[in-house]
Each structure stands twice: as structure tokens, then as C-alpha cells.
């Protein structure tokens, strides 16, 4: 006697759990592939960032305003940090989007959670990009005079 095993997709899925709409594009596959590739690139970018900041030179004690100003004077480090920012935000946003799709049961809840996610991610990427490209290491004399008082280093 043999047992009959149904094909995995032979049973009808309860409609409340069937959220997958048929689409002609492969967005989810591309998102999955992006997560793997961006993860590999991020590991290289992050270790390069950590090595240049912590192991080369005086280590963590040398990181201050002047260190960042000197580093961002080079277009290489601007592009490096910008790439790291963009990839990390896109990677994290895609991961949270997947979690929202998995755990938010109502379409309306899923829509609003993803809307908030995309707005916050876009704001963070925009703000970070502006900081990297508009960073001015030449501070005004008025601000320079008050800097030691603000930092608690004394006058």
C-alpha cells in the first residue's frame, strides 16, 4: 500500500493568509539578491572604515573634529562613507520591509508602517548625504572662540 502525498501547492491557501499577489516582475528575488550582495560589500566597507579609524594612527583617541575634517577633505573617503551610508540604509530598510511584510497582518497597517519606514530612510539618507558633501572644516572665529567652553576644555 502506498500513501498519496499531495503536491505542496495543491491545497488551497486560506485567503486571509494569501497576501502574495501575482506579479510579472521579480522584485522579491531582486531584493533578496540585493541583501546578499550589499551585505558582502558592507562588510568590506565597514572593516575598511574601522581599520582606517581605529587601527591606523593613534586609534580611537585621535578621532575628533580635525580627524573627520581631514578625512573628508579627500574625495575617496567622502565616496567611501557615502557608499557605506547608502548601502547600510537601503540594506536595513529592505530588511525591515521584509519583517513588516511577514508580521503585519492588515493591509492598512502594512501600508502605514512601510510609508513611515520609507520616509525615515529617505530623510536619513538625504541628511547624511548633505552632511558629507556640505561639511565645512573651516569654522568661523566666533564659533572657534566659544568651542572650548562648549566642549568643557576650558578657555
Automatic annotation (TrEMBL):
Instruction: Please list the GO terms describing molecular function.
Output: metal ion binding
Query: Pfam families from the xrefs?
Result: Sdh_cyt (PF01127)
Instruction: Look up the domain of life of the source.
Output: Bacteria
Asked if the keyword Acetylation belongs to this entry, the reply reads no
Bilayer-crossing residues are: 29-52, 72-90, 111-135
Q: Does the keyword NAD apply?
A: no
A cellular component term, taken from the record's GO annotations:
membrane
> Where's it found, cell-wise?
Membrane
User: What protein name is recorded for this chain?
Assistant: Succinate dehydrogenase
Originating organism: Galactobacter valiniphilus
Q: Taxonomic lineage per UniProt?
A: Bacteria, Bacillati, Actinomycetota, Actinomycetes, Micrococcales
Amino acid at each position: 500500500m502506498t500513501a498519496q502525498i499531495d503536491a505542496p501547492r495543491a491545497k488551497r491557501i486560506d485567503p486571509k493568509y494569501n497576501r502574495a499577489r501575482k506579479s510579472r516582475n521579480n522584485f522579491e528575488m531582486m531584493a533578496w539578491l540585493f541583501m546578499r550582495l550589499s551585505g558582502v560589500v558592507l562588510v568590506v566597507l565597514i572593516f575598511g572604515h574601522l581599520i582606517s579609524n581605529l587601527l591606523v594612527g593613534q586609534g580611537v583617541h585621535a578621532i575628533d573634529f580635525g580627524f573627520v575634517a581631514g578625512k573628508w577633505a579627500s574625495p575617496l573617503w567622502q565616496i567611501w562613507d557615502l557608499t557605506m551610508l547608502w548601502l547600510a540604509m537601503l540594506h536595513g530598510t529592505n530588511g525591515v520591509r521584509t519583517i513588516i511584510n511577514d508580521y503585519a497582518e492588515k493591509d492598512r497597517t502594512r501600508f502605514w508602517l512601510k510609508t513611515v519606514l520609507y520616509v525615515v530612510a529617505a530623510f536619513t539618507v538625504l541628511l547624511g548625504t548633505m552632511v558629507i558633501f556640505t561639511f565645512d572644516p573651516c569654522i568661523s572665529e566666533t564659533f572657534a572662540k566659544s568651542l572650548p567652553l562648549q566642549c568643557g576644555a576650558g578657555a
